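Appendix B. Worked example

We walk through a single record from start to finish. Start with the input: the chain for Bifunctional protein HldE, Malaciobacter molluscorum LMG 25693, length 473.
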Amino acid sequence: MIKLDKKPNILVIGDLMIDHYLWGSCDRISPEAPVQIIDVKKETTVLGGAGNVINNLLSLGSDVGVISVVGDDEVAKELKSMLDKHGAKSFLIEQKGRKTSKKSRIMASHSQVVRYDHESKNSISFDSEKKIFEKFQELINRYDIILFSDYGKGVITKDLSKKIIDYAKKYDKKVIVDPKGEDYSKYSGAYFLTPNKKEAQIASKVEIENEEKLKEALIKLKTIASLDYSIITLSEQGIALLKDDEVILRPTVAREVFDVTGAGDTVLASLGFALSLGKDLVEAIEFANLAAGVVVGKLGSATVTLDEIEEYKTSLNQSSIEFHLKTFKEIEKISNRLKEQNKKIVFTNGCFDILHKGHVSYLNTAKSFGDVLILGLNSDDSVKRLKGENRPINNQDDRAYILLALECVDYVVIFDEDTPYELISLVKPDILVKGADYDGKEVVGSDIAKETKLVEFIDGRSTTKTIEKIQGK
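Next comes the structure step. The output line below is what the pipeline stores for this chain.
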């Protein structure tokens, strides 16, 4: 699984837009015409087009730059403000007389009633092309990888595409493209494209009916656009890759599909993200499939985080043990998100030096009180102060790994203090669990948790007795 040891720097070039929503309800028909009257209650705006790729990259943990062309209008100012607020570094070229894209949707009871667009769809001017390329030349060394998000609104012209791809190759920078239109020669020399099945059929003029036709389409697209690799996204069937004349298919496993809006943007973002961290192409595809599996389970154009992908992997029984060992900062963010999802958090802590049946029974009982069990684990130094110089028998990494192998333990956080009070303050659990030997004693953190529960240990089971038995005492 991907761990974010460094922040990748990714540059997005493409068509930016604002998705604007007017939310309301409808109780009557207009007397002026046979149309619904919508009583607007709320108005929202989100980044759309290439902006959804940017949102996904930011939520995954990237540093993101964006180059695009906008008009000299109020929508452009709004768009720039949104990019700044999200934390993207924007390099926007203003073109006089051009309309910045804004798509407005009137929604009633979560159903779209009508959409109206304010935008220019013609190709950007030669002067704007020149300014984009000059800016790209200036910025190229700052970024690990370049993503084209082409929505067919005129920013990525054929000449500009060729110039950027050729120049990127001189610096050994990969260009990945979410394509638009029928002529993929426009992206000649790209690392690969990410068309969906319908787009691939149109561009390759091959009807993808079976595996043989799928391979034919992949080969044709690779030839048309002189690609390093050829890829086709296949919705719930996953992603197909042509590598060394062999088709590799990695399926997507979605628990439940609510909305496929923006899934293509998530695939582009997650592929670029994984590759920029040094993953090979097959690993990147597997990561992108997981990301897509998360976003199709959400409503509307959605983003995905590394933690959501890991939780999703857990639900598919594919999760890596190490990823569930968290820092204080990480567990605070996870706890906040779990609360937003109305999950009941259970917290317990201890040394758990030599794991035995008593520990497992105790932890299983603790997990039964809620949805997620977070375990605070005493560090080696902390155990020495509590138990003496000869303890622990097993070091903190070994103890954490073994605990995380238990199905009932969701996250482990190692703490160095004598008590886990600081950690409990960050987690703010619903349920705090300790052993029944604390009956009548003060339980650290009970003033923070909503409820404290004491659990009986199994008689005759303890780490001390296990050690004595090993020593023949």
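Two observations about the output. The two ends are 44 Å apart (CA to CA). The chain has 15 helices and 19 strands.
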